[in-house]
């Protein structure tokens, strides 16, 4: 791949290390313009940005669903673009859009996914049972995925991403469009597996979600990382009181700040 | 089993499972269609036509029907399976796994091949019950059918990968594949056609496939067996190489 950086074996073992990642689509759109990012093992890392900022493209590049036009990606030290076998084995992806196969049942969805990752039959069966239970899907095990409600599909997508016990879990807006109850349920699960050692990359539009869950957060805009740090660090960088205000400063909509609105109202 | 073997078996199993879940459409309908062809062209018209090249008409037709069943089902399975999965986004689950382009291509190919084999096998069994169907050259028949199935599996993969809507698949099947098969001599001998149609038939690749299969069953062919086999093998290999390149590049599969 032209323009890709040649990574040496001496690169550190970040859970996800992205260097100078570029993605230009055939239409000419530059979705990523030299993104560099490192997520350390055990972190719960948030990626925030407006629609079209490059969040999903970055995730797709890390999981093989998009082909970068420049730069490099390593997952726990393994190249994720060239000889991607080890890197892919370490990653679980819960995409933004429910991408379930309508022909499969809930149980088959989990079983096949684990099979793609080389998990033996007995282990697949046990893991499927465990995750069906965890995500309250046991009663739906034999139902085809197209009959599930939106919330059930979300649960299944997350369960599927976890099936092969990934060391790095990538959640692309996992709580978009779900009710409060399920959102809180998913938050608890995400926090639990993070505490158990799974590194998590989370993209979200919900500032409070990022604030509550993430150790560190990066802002992405127009294909570039424009800010990175803890919630407090980002607020300080933009000279504002909260992460939400920092985000509004990033997208140039300071007038929407709650403090601004409250002051105006009074 | 190694992790790679489990992965490949799962990819392949998914494809077989898909068409078995809708077997009324994927197995039943093609079988009924073939049975109707045998009934109409064999029983109804066959008695009027008599024999072609010394072979009873219905026996002359059946090898072509078996080849047609194998080819159309191999093609239809792969083209629709890939397009459907692209459409649903479900293919992302396979594409983001550690599976190599070769594993993915082989699994998709074998799915269609298995459906073609199943329908062709059942057609053979049903035809054998209805007519006295010989198998004169099994050593030609088996590799010929294998290559026909694999060729059309590859063609189905190619169309499925390139297609952006179901219309694209329907166009390839209805306006390209079926006319080529029908005009390739399934129901007649090319020698019966007036010029220039007889000569034109020789430019139809399906004509050679039908002749290979017909030779395997009844020992009659209008084309060179060795050359036809060689050409079919070469065409299948080229198509496989093209598909492998598309999968490696992620053409219309990865953004």
Helices, strands, pairings?
The complex is a heterodimer of chains A (266) and B (255).
Chain A: E1 16-24, E2 30-39, E3 44-48, H1 55-63, E4 70-75, E5 78-79, H2 85-89, E6 91-94, H3 106-116, H4 121-134, H5 150-162, E7 168-172, H6 180-195, E8 199-204, H7 207-213, E9 216-221, E10 224-229, H8 231-237, H9 243-250, H10 258-265
Parallel strand pairs in A: 3-8, 3-9, 6-7, 7-8
Antiparallel strand pairs in A: 1-2, 1-4, 4-5, 9-10
Chain B: H1 3-21, H2 23-44, H3 46-49, E1 51-52, E2 55-56, H4 57-88, H5 91-95, H6 101-130, H7 138-162, H8 166-182, H9 197-201, H10 205-218, H11 225-249
Antiparallel strand pairs in B: 1-2
> Which fold name corresponds to the CATH topology of the largest domain in chain A?
Rossmann fold
Could you estimate the helical fraction of the residues of chain A in percent? 25-40%
What share of the residues of chain B does DSSP label as strand, in percent?
under 5%
Give the ordered list of helices and strands of chain A: EEEHEEHEHHHEHEHEEHHH
Which structural class is indicated by helix and strand composition of chain B? mainly alpha
Whole-number tally of structural domains of chain A: 2
Shape of chain B: elongated
Distance between the termini of chain A: 58 Å
Helix and strand sequence of chain B: HHHEEHHHHHHHH
Structure summary, number of beta strands of chain A: 10
* Helical coverage of chain B, percent range: over 70%
Compute the number of strand runs of chain B.
2
Ranges of chain A where pLDDT stays below 50 over 5 or more residues in a row are 1-11
CATH class of the largest domain in chain A: Alpha Beta
Tell me, rounded to a whole number, the average pLDDT of chain A: 89
Overall geometric form of chain A: globular
């Amino acid at each position: 791949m032209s323009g890709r950086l040649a990574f040496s074996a001496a690169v550190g073992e970040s859970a996800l290390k992205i260097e100078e990642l570029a993605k230009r689509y055939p239409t000419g759109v530059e979705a990523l313009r030299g993104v560099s990012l490192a997520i350390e093992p055990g972190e719960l890392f948030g990626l925030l940005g407006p629609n079209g900022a490059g969040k999903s493209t970055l995730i797709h590049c890390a999981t093989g669903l998009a082909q970068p036009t420049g730069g490099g990606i390593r997952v726990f030290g393994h190249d994720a673009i060239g000889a991607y076998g080890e890197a892919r084995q370490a990653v679980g992806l819960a995409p933004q859009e429910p991408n379930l196969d309508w022909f499969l049942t809930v149980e088959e969805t989990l079983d096949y996914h684990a099979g793609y990752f080389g998990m033996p039959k007995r282990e697949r069966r046990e893991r499927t049972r465990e995750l069906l239970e965890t995500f309250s899907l046991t009663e739906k095990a034999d139902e085809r995925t197209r009959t599930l409600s939106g919330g059930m599909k979300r649960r299944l997508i997350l369960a599927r991403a976890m099936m092969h016990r990934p060391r790095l879990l990538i959640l692309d807006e996992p709580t978009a469009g779900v009710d409060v109850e399920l959102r809180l349920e998913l938050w608890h699960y995400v926090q639990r597996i993070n505490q158990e050692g799974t590194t998590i990359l989370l993209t979200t539009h919900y500032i409070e979600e990022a604030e509550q869950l993430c150790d560190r957060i990066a802002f992405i805009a127009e294909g570039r990382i424009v800010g990175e740090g803890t919630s407090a660090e980002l607020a300080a960088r933009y000279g504002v009181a909260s992460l939400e205000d920092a985000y509004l400063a990033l997208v140039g909509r300071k007038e929407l700040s709650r403090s601004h609105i409250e002051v105006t109202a009074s | 089993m190694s992790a790679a073997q489990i992965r490949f078996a799962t990819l392949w199993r998914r494809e077989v499972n898909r068409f078995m879940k809708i077997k009324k459409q994927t197995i039943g309908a093609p079988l009924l269609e073939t049975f109707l062809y045998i009934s109409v062209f064999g029983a109804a018209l066959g008695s009027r036509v008599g024999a072609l090249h010394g072979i009873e008409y219905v026996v002359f037709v059946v090898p072509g029907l078996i080849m047609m069943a194998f080819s159309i089902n191999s093609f239809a399975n792969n083209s629709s399976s890939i397009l459907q999965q692209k459409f649903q986004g479900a293919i992302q689950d396979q594409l983001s796994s550690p599976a190599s382009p070769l594993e993915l291509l082989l699994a998709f190919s074998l799915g269609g091949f298995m459906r073609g084999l199943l329908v062709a096998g059942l057609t053979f069994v049903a035809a054998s019950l209805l007519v006295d169907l010989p198998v004169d050259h099994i050593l030609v028949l088996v590799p010929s059918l294998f290559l026909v199935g694999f060729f059309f599996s590859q063609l189905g993969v190619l169309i499925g990968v390139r297609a952006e809507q179901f219309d694209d698949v329907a166009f390839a099947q209805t306006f390209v594949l079926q006319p080529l098969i029908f005009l390739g001599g399934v129901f007649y001998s090319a020698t019966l056609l007036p010029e220039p149609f007889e000569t034109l038939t020789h430019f139809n690749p399906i004509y050679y496939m039908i002749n290979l299969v017909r030779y395997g069953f009844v020992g009659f062919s209008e084309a060179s067996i060795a050359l036809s086999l060689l050409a079919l093998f070469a065409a299948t290999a080229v198509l496989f190489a093209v598909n492998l390149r598309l999968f490696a590049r992620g053409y219309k599969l990865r953004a």
